[in-house]
Structures are given as C-alpha cells and as structure tokens.
Design a protein that fits this description.
The structure is a single chain. With about 300 residues, the chain is of the alpha/beta class. About 40% of the residues lie in helices and about 20% in strands. The strands form 2 sheets. The chain has a 5-stranded mixed sheet, with helices on both faces. Strand 6, helix 5 and strand 7 form a beta-alpha-beta unit. Helix 1 packs across helix 8 and helix 3 packs parallel to helix 10. The N and C termini lie far apart (about 50 Å). It binds D-malate. The site of D-malate has 15 residues, from helix 1, helix 5, helix 6 and strand 8.
C-alpha cells in the first residue's frame, strides 16, 4: 500500500481524525495534559486529534475500551501511573497493560499536592496531621476512583498517618476539585496540572508536594519529606499508547510526532506553568515507556499487593 496502512486502504497514515481516549473526566489533569498536546500533535500529523473522555473505575474503563480498539492508529490512549497500579488493584482487570498495548512514548511526569478546602483551619502540614488525627471520623478525602493517581496518593497518605478517612470518589479530579472549591469535601491530593493555579490564587490551601524537590511554580509549598512524611512520595508519569497489533511504522509516525509536539515551545511553557515539563526526546522513545510500565507494575505490585 502507499503508506503506513490504517485509514482508507493504501492511504498514507494518518489520513483521518485520531481519537485519544482520556480515561478520566474533562477538566482534570489527564485531560489537561492531553488537550495541550492534541493541537501540536494534529499539526504535525496533518489530521485532527480529538480527545475522547471515557470515565470510570479509576481509569480502567477508558483503558479497557482503548485495548479493544482497532489497531489502526486511529484510537490511542493517554494514561498515567494508573496503567501500572491497575493489575494489582483490579485482580479481574479486563485488559493487560503490557500485552494489549503498544507503547508510543512517555509524555510528562507531574508532582502532586496535598490540598484542603480554604478555611479548614490548619496552617501547616503538621497542623493538618493534628487536625486529621483529631477529626478522623469526619474528615472527607476526594479522589478519582481506585486506580487513579489521587487515590494512590490518598492511600499513601492514610497509610503513613495510620488513619482511615471517609473517601469520596469522582470520575476525575476535575469534578473533585470543583467540590473542594465549593467546600463540599475537605481534602484532595491532586496533580499540580490541576491545582497549581488554584493554589496560587488562594482558592485552595496546599500543605505539601509529593516530590523530593519543591515545585518551581509553588516555591512556598514544602515537600512531604520536609513536612516529615517522606513515604508519601509519588509523581505521576503519563504515557501515550496504541492498541497491541498497531503496525510498527504507524507507531513510529506517532512517536516522531509526539517527540516534535513535546519539543514545541508553547507546550513547554504551558507544562511549566502547571508545575511540570515535557519529557526529553530520549525519554520519549517507546522502549523507555515500555520499561517504565513494566518496572512500575512490579513496584506497585509489591507496595500495594502486600496489604491485600
Ligand atoms: C487521577 O487522580 O488519576 C487524575 O487526577 C484523574 C484525572 O485526570 O482527572
């Protein structure tokens, strides 16, 4: 055929709109990262790149749908660390993150921030810990479902503090953040891509970031290590995937377009304003995502599997 296959037989790939499944609600961090990339990706590929939010079950509904899509390069998945925790958290998972997908490339790695609604009272992480211990039976903690990054952070935080809080699940931290801003829920651990602007405007209170170094755009927020909780450390890596069986030359076209989009100055600026940055061209190689995914499945299998 005249090109990399896919689309109308014999057309050069891509010759049609590409859908990128985001397994969480619109307006959340995964959605934000994908929408920033969609335009430069589309420009590079010469077709429309459309974001398709397929929510539910901590990202496993959308990832499952992507695993069933035709392997023609016209349906992709942009997902995060949840691809690596799902096999442990969902024993009867309806997809295999490794066998059912072709890695296209890593996109970015995003810090998280431990947040409360304004007016909760604590003025520091230490005071937040005291507040949580004193109000364990009433404090509410939002997340985006078992398997989400916010739920993973919530789990690490509760384990480190030895508390069990009332969890309030959402289909993404877009809606979770809306309730935090409205004061309907007390706490949320969310990625800086979804919370940096709310923190800087004072619309929510931030107590710590879950990475070893402070986040440049949030210089006044201490790290969890500084705040005395070094075990609450997690950063949310995101990858772009195609269904298993997608032709190698299609994956190559996608990977090259991804690398170009990640090198786009506008993308870099937007990511940096949100507390993160695009991965380097070297880091965006498919083999790096493949290794990251396998390593993380093993790591979280060990860390999360113990308790079950
Ligand atoms: C998560 O908690 O996994 C994400 O924040 C969900 C989302 O992107 O909305």
């Amino acid at each position: 055929s005249g090109g990399a296959g896919g689309g109308g037989g014999g057309d050069t790939y891509p010759s049609d709109t590409i859908d990128v499944i985001v397994p969480f609600s619109a307006g959340g961090p995964t959605d934000t990262v994908t929408r920033i990339l969609a335009e430069p990706l589309g420009e590079e590929l010469g077709v429309q790149v459309v974001v398709d939010n397929v929510e539910g079950a901590g990202g496993t509904v959308g990832a499952g749908e992507a695993s069933q899509a035709d392997p023609d390069g016209y349906t992709l998945l942009l997902h995060h660390i949840g691809m690596s925790t799902a096999p442990t958290l969902y024993p009867d998972l309806n997809f295999d993150p490794v066998a059912d997908f072709e890695p296209v490339g890593l996109v970015t790695e995003v810090p998280m921030a431990i947040l409360s609604k304004t007016g909760l009272g604590p003025a520091s992480f230490e005071e937040l810990v005291e507040y949580i211990e004193a109000n364990e039976s009433t404090v509410t903690l939002a997340h985006a479902g078992v398997g989400s990054a916010s739920h993973l952070c919530a789990t690490l935080m509760q384990d480190a503090l030895g508390v069990t809080l009332t969890e309030v699940p959402y289909d993404g931290t877009g809606p979770a953040m809306a309730d935090l801003l409205g004061g309907q829920v007390d706490l949320l651990c969310d990625q800086t891509t979804n919370s940096a602007s709310q923190i800087l405007s004072g619309a929510v209170d931030a107590y710590a970031v879950t990475v070893p170094e402070r986040v440049a755009v949030l210089p006044d927020v201490p790290t969890t290590a500084e705040a005395g909780l070094p075990d609450v450390e997690v950063s949310i890596w995101h990858g772009l995937y195609a269904p298993a069986g997608t032709p190698e030359d299609v994956v190559t076209v996608l990977n090259e377009a991804l690398i170009t989009a990640l090198g786009n100055d506008e993308v870099k600026t937007q990511f940096e304003e949100l507390g993160t940055s695009p991965v380097s061209a070297e880091q965006a190689a498919p083999s790096v995502l493949s290794t990251q995914l396998s390593d993380q499945i093993a790591l979280w299998g060990d860390l999360l599997g113990k308790g079950n």
